[in-house]
Recover the amino acids of this structure.
């Protein structure tokens, strides 16, 4: 499996030939899908009137393809129905004209215009196209088939961006591992450097207070030196690096797991800075924090 971004766009259009009965003639079915980052799976549909029944199966289909993201799904159905002849209700029109002539003669009214007469309700019979249940079912099946194509296109877009994000994350993980190794091999952590630091600190303390117990002071200094050791933090960083590489290699919806690891990376970087008793280690810790922040920003885009 490969990584998927939660951001993507797809537009998919198909021509529907009217099903078995062909009552509606050809139609153009267009789906537009957009997705952005989200904590869970949230879908909002925008459907034409009369096609609300498509939403439940469409929602199920989308959930089979994706596990996270905020989605907007818009459907357009552009019909090109065949033209129908307009029928005139002759008997009704004759009655209307008779009444009009009587009123004109009786009250001296102006003759009615043609457009006025045709605008009267009932004069024109405009056949209303109706869809059978079978035709409606055929159209909805075509709409869902088109949605399947749109979902596949959106998945391709999200995977393409996910692949790019994966390459960025891999580079950032390599940088974290490199910084941990630099801290591990830093000259300030050598036995000679630690001994020299302790000796200098002890000399200052003994000069300031000659009455203090020298043995006790050395014990306290040794305790502080042990407390300031960053080996545990470096070991945990190595473990987190290995876990992150394994997750990225496996792929799939790993955004939440990587987000948890980014928090662990940040915790170790903070502890490393707080324990540091050398400027070089502090500098490495600050650089590590910057890389971890960048890592976490990228992880927010992953499914």
């Amino acid at each position: 499996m490969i990584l998927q971004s939660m951001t993507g766009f797809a537009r998919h259009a198909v021509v529907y030939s009217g099903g078995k009965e062909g009552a509606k003639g050809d139609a153009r079915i267009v789906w537009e899908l957009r997705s952005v980052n989200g904590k869970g799976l949230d879908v909002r549909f925008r459907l034409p009137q009369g096609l609300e029944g498509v939403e439940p199966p469409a929602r199920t289909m989308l959930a089979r393809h994706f596990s996270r993201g905020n989605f907007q799904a818009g459907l357009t159905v552009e019909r090109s129905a065949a033209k129908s002849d307009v029928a005139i209700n002759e008997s009704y029109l004759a009655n209307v004209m008779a009444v009009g002539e009587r009123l004109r003669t009786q009250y001296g009214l102006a003759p009615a215009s043609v457009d006025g007469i045709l605008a009267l309700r009932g004069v024109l019979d405009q056949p209303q196209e109706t869809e059978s249940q079978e035709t409606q079912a055929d159209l909805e099946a075509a709409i869902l088939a088109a949605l399947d194509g749109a979902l596949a296109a959106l998945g391709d877009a999200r995977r393409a961006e996910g692949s790019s994000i994966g390459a960025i994350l891999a580079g950032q993980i390599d940088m974290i591992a490199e910084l941990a190794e630099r801290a591990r091999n830093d000259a300030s952590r050598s036995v000679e450097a630690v001994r020299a630091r302790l000796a200098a600190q002890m000399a200052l303390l003994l000069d300031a207070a000659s009455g203090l117990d020298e043995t006790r002071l050395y014990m306290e200094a040794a305790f502080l030196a042990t407390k300031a050791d960053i080996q545990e933090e470096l070991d945990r960083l190595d473990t987190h690096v290995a876990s992150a590489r394994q997750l990225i290699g496996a792929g799939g919806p790993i955004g939440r797991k990587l987000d948890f690891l980014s928090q662990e990376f940040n915790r170790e970087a903070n502890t490393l800075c707080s324990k540091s008793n050398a400027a070089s280690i502090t500098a490495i810790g600050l650089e590590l924090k910057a890389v971890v922040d960048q890592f976490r920003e990228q992880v927010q885009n992953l499914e």
The chain has three domains: 8-83+131-158, 87-125, 160-299. The longest strand covers residues 69-80.
